[in-house]
Amino acid sequence: MFRYNAEVRKEYLVSFALTVVLSVAAFFFSFYAGIAVVVTFAILMMVRVIADSRRYRRMAELSDAIDRVLHGAEKVNFEEYQEGEVAILSSEIHKMVIRLREQAAQLLADKRFLSDSIADIAHQLRTPLTSMNIITDLFAVEDLPDEKRYDLLSEMMQSLNRIEWLINTLLKMSKLDADTVYFESKEYLVKDMVKRAADSLAVPLDVNNIALKIDVPEDAKVRGDMMWTCETVSNIIKNCMEHTPSGGRIDVIVKDTPIYCEIMIQDTGSGIDPEDIPHVFERFYRGKVAVNSSIGIGLALGKMIIDRQNGTTRASNREEPEHGARFTIRLYKSSR
Q1: How is the beta sheet containing 325-332 ordered, strand by strand?
Q2: What is the Cα–Cα distance from 169 to 301, expressed in whole angstroms?
Q3: 256 Rama sector, left if φ>0, alpha if ψ -120 to 50, beta otherwise
Q4: Mean pLDDT lowest among 61-65, 134-138, 233-237
Q5: Contact at 8 Å (CB) between 265 and 233?
Q6: Nearest-angstrom CA–CA distance, 149 and 135
Q7: Which residues contact 313 (CB under 8 A, 6 or more apart)?
Q8: With the C-alpha atoms ordered 172, 176, 180, 184, is the resulting torsion angle positive or negative?
Q9: What is the pTM for the complete model shown?
Q10: What is the pLDDT of residues 276-298, one digit of tens each?
């Protein structure tokens, strides 16, 4: 204790010097007074040495416990120190250890999620790339009819569009994960946002012979980021389109209240399997009735966007007698 702590050694030397001075002064008055000072000093020094030795022993045990934590020990008891400054220190270290373990567990979970995501992305890219390789080989056939060439070219364009959409969506999700996206907070008409989302899918809806019915109050307004919310509505309509047969219908119904603006998007397709409903917004999740072209990130991106704007997104099925999926978005209005 004296060897390794210069501050404690200095305190003991000062105490000893002060006691010598007081003892000499006491002896001038009385022999017994001098003896009393010396005895008192000896008792106090003995008590302090015992207390300091105990404290340093506990600190050494605490240091060993910290060392075991650093070397991967799973169970270290920091709660045996119940009072004094060492107990306060051990309590704070205990909190720090818990926090570090939580962060380590979160990092491990993120690492596994990243690994799974990379595997899913690779799988999703492999399919269109394989298709494009086959199409490229077919183009090398010299006597291939022009009509067949046009069909192959159309298939290649679809694969390229799929890859482009996948990459763009993943980039948007990564920006949201990194919290680098700035969401505007401007008031806009909901009908303008829904119209923009519908216009982006007008051609594929027409090609698939699916009607889109929109019912939006003229004066319905909400505060938020119009472009990002439009991305969500567009992704949900696209998902409904992929699961609605030719001749079907998609409804976009907006309900405006003083508290929130509700956007309900429903189709006349096959609906969602009850077991899939809790998972439809998970990344790369493909339900039992998912189409082959489904990737499973459009709905996940949409939910992330709405969550960032303090809204809610819910999936369910339409009530009888009609069948189909129903997605409900609620954007809550600010009280300011």
Answers
A1: 211-215, 249-256, 260-267, 325-332, 312-317
A2: 7
A3: beta
A4: 61-65
A5: yes
A6: 9
A7: 232, 281, 302, 303, 306, 307, 327, 328, 329, 330
A8: positive
A9: 0.62
A10: 888 888 877 776 656 555 566 88
